[in-house]
C-alpha cells in the first residue's frame, strides 16, 4: 500500500514519444517472465522476477510481459509488484516500460491480468485464443464463428475495464487459414485491440513464409493501419530469430522475444540475437532500429541464466561463452592483425569485458604469434630461442589440456626462466 502511494506521486512523463511515432522503430516486447518461465524447470521467485524486470527496464525494453496472472495467486502478486515498482518509475528521460499480463479469452483471466497490471503507468492486457483448425477442433472444440465472437467480446471486455492498451493473439496463426485470420483480426480491431500479435506457436513456418504472412495481413486486414503488428516466433525448427527478422522486415513493429531465447519447448526468438541482428545489419533491414541499450545485454543474460537455472550453451550466438573466443591458429593470427577479420560485433557493445584483450583462447591449434601476444599481455617480452622453447613446452601442455590458462603459461615461463 505504501509503495503504491509512493509511486502514484510520480507525475506522468511523456514516455519518450519517438518510440511510438517513428515508423522504423521496432518495439521490443520481452516475454522472459511469461513464455520464458514456461521452460521446464525455469520457475523464478517473485524477488528474482522483480530483479529481471528491473534489468529489462535498464535495457530499454518497451513492453515487459511480466506473467500470466490467472495462472496462480503468486504470479498475480509478482506481476502486480512489477507493475508498481518497475511500471511506475520512469528514468531521467521519462521512459517507463509498458507492463503486460497474459490472459486467455475469458473474463476471469482478463480480470486477473487487469488487476495485476492496472497499477502501472502504461498497463497492457494481452489476450489470446487459438485460430488454427487443429487447435479449434481438438483443443477448444469450438467453431470459427464462436472463436470470433469470444475474441471480440473479450477484447471489448478488457477495454471496458479501463484498459486502453489491449493486445490480441490468434494462437497458432502460423498454421491458421489466411482468410479466417484477416476476418478475426478485423473484428478484434473493431472491438478495440491496439496490438495484433501473430504467433508462430509451434515454430513451423520458414522465414520467407512468415514474412509473407505478415505482409499479407498488413495488405488484407481492414483497419490494420491503426494498430501495431507484432511477431511471436517459437524456435522448434531453430528459425525463431530468422522468422522474427523476416516479420519485422515485412512490417511488424513489435517483436516478442526472451533473454537467452528461453521459452516453451525449444524456446523463443532471443532478444540479444534479434536486437543485434537489427543493429548490425541496419541497412539491409531497411533502417529498422530498436531502443535497446545493448551494453546491458550480458548482465541480463547472466541474470536470467542464474535465476532460471537454464545455462547458456557455449556456442550460443551473442551471449555464449565462445561467442567472442578464437581458438584456431589462422583465426588468432587474423584477430591479432585486425579484429574485424573474425568479429562482426565488438564485445564491448553488449557489455562484455573479456579476460584478455584479443579474445584468444590458447589451445592446441594456437600458433607462435598468438602465444607471443598473450605472453606480452602477461608482461613477458620473449623472443628467439627462448620463445621457441616456451612454444615447444606450450604445445606439449596443449596436447593434454583443452585450454591453456594464464596460470599454465606462468608455470611454463617460470620453468623456462628458472631452469638451470
Ligand atoms: O506461442 C504462443 O502462441 C503464445 C501466445 C500466447 C502469444 O505464447
From TrEMBL:
Q: Does the keyword Metal-binding apply?
A: yes
> In which pathway does this enzyme or protein participate?
Amino-acid biosynthesis; L-leucine biosynthesis; L-leucine from 3-methyl-2-oxobutanoate: step 1/4
Q: Which UniProt keywords apply?
A: Amino-acid biosynthesis, Branched-chain amino acid biosynthesis, Leucine biosynthesis, Metal-binding, Transferase
E.C. number: 2.3.3.13
Instruction: Spell out the molecular function terms from Gene Ontology.
Output: 2-isopropylmalate synthase activity; metal ion binding
Family listed? Belongs to the alpha-IPM synthase/homocitrate synthase family. LeuA type 1 subfamily.
Output this protein's name.
Answer: 2-isopropylmalate synthase
The beginning of the lineage is: Eukaryota, Viridiplantae, Streptophyta, Embryophyta, Tracheophyta
Amino acid at each position: 500500500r505504501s509503495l503504491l502511494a509512493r509511486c502514484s506521486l510520480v507525475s506522468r512523463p511523456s514516455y519518450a514519444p519517438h518510440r511510438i511515432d517513428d515508423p522504423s522503430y521496432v518495439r521490443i516486447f520481452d516475454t522472459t517472465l511469461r513464455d520464458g518461465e514456461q521452460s521446464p524447470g525455469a520457475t523464478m521467485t517473485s524477488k528474482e522476477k522483480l530483479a529481471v524486470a528491473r534489468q529489462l527496464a535498464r535495457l530499454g525494453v518497451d513492453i515487459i510481459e511480466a506473467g500470466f496472472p490467472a495462472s496462480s495467486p503468486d504470479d498475480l502478486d509478482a506481476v502486480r509488484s512489477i507493475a508498481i515498482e518497475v511500471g511506475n518509475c520512469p528514468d531521467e528521460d521519462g521512459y517507463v516500460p509498458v507492463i503486460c499480463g497474459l490472459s486467455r479469452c475469458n473474463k476471469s483471466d482478463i480480470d486477473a491480468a487487469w488487476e495485476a497490471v492496472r497499477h502501472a503507468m502504461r498497463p497492457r492486457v494481452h489476450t489470446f485464443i487459438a485460430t488454427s483448425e487443429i487447435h479449434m477442433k481438438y483443443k477448444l472444440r469450438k467453431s470459427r464463428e464462436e472463436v470470433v465472437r469470444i475474441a471480440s467480446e473479450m477484447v471489448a471486455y478488457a477495454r471496458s475495464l479501463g484498459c486502453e492498451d489491449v493486445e490480441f493473439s490468434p494462437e497458432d496463426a502460423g498454421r491458421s487459414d489466411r482468410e479466417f485470420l484477416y476476418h478475426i483480426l478485423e473484428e478484434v480491431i473493431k472491438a478495440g485491440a491496439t496490438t495484433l500479435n501473430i504467433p508462430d506457436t509451434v515454430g513451423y513456418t520458414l522465414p520467407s513464409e512468415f514474412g509473407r504472412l505478415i505482409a499479407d495481413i498488413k495488405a488484407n486486414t481492414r483497419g490494420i493501419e491503426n494498430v501495431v503488428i507484432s511477431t511471436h516466433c517459437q524456435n522448434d525448427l531453430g528459425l525463431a530469430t530468422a522468422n522474427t527478422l523476416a516479420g519485422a522486415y515485412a512490417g511488424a513493429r513489435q517483436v516478442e522475444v526472451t533473454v537467452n531465447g528461453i521459452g516453451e519447448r525449444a524456446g523463443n526468438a532471443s532478444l540479444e540475437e534479434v536486437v543485434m541482428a537489427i543493429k548490425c545489419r541496419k541497412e539491409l533491414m531497411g533502417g529498422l532500429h530498436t531502443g535497446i541499450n545493448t551494453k546491458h545485454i550480458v548482465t541480463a543474460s547472466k541474470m536470467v541464466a542464474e535465476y532460471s537455472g537454464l545455462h547458456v550453451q557455449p556456442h550460443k550466438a551473442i551471449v555464449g561463452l565462445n561467442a567472442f573466443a578464437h581458438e584456431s591458429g589462422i583465426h588468432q593470427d587474423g584477430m591479432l592483425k585486425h579484429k574485424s577479420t573474425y568479429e562482426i560485433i565488438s564485445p564491448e557493445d553488449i557489455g562484455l569485458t573479456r579476460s584478455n584483450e584479443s579474445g584468444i583462447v590458447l589451445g592446441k591449434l594456437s600458433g607462435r604469434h598468438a602465444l607471443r601476444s598473450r605472453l606480452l599481455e602477461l608482461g613477458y617480452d620473449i623472443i628467439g630461442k627462448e620463445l621457441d622453447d616456451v612454444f615447444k613446452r606450450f604445445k606439449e601442455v596443449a596436447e593434454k589440456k583443452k585450454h591453456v590458462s594464464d596460470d599454465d603459461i606462468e608455470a611454463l615461463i617460470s620453468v623456462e626462466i628458472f631452469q638451470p
